[in-house]
Amino acid sequence: MNHEKKEIRYKLEQELESYTFERKKNVLKKTHPKTFIERYAAWLDGKITIPVYPVCAALGVAFLLVSVPLLTPEQQDGKGELVDLKGSIYWSEMIEERLGGE
Q1: Measured CA angle at 83 (ends 77, 89), to 5 deg
Q2: Model pTM above 0.70
Q3: Is 92:81 a contact under the CB 8 Å cutoff?
Q4: How far apart are CA 67 and CA 41, in angstroms?
């Protein structure tokens, strides 16, 4: 068994003898970064996965939390309530001011 392994290894070495690996230093730099810049570059080269559905859901909820309070009619600055008059909408205080004491 041991003899067969040596024979296979010898054949493999004979076949791969003509091939040389020239970028050993570059590979070692990427697989074993030493400096902060090398580690940062290796981190950027890695695959960063961001789950699309949860991120979209979170952005949608945030959008709703911000936009819904802006859309709800609230009494602002003590102007009273909104009144529909001949197709236009006015604050009740504006109508009272214009009509006076009528």
Answers
A1: 90
A2: no
A3: yes
A4: 40
Q: What residues of the chain score a pLDDT lower than 50?
A: none
d(CA 83, CA 89) in angstroms, rounded, equals 5
Phi and psi at residue 69, to the nearest 5°:
-65, -25
SS3 content of the chain, % helix, strand, coil (to 5): 60, 10, 30
Token pair in block for residue 95: 């109508």
Cα angle 35, 40, 44 (rounded to 5 degrees) comes to: 150
- pLDDT digits 0-9 by tens, 9-24: 999 999 888 888 788 8
Q: Dihedrals φ, ψ of 85, to 5°?
A: -130, 110
Determine the Cα–Cα distance for residues 23 and 31; give it in Å rounded to an integer.
12
Count of positions (residues) in the chain: 102
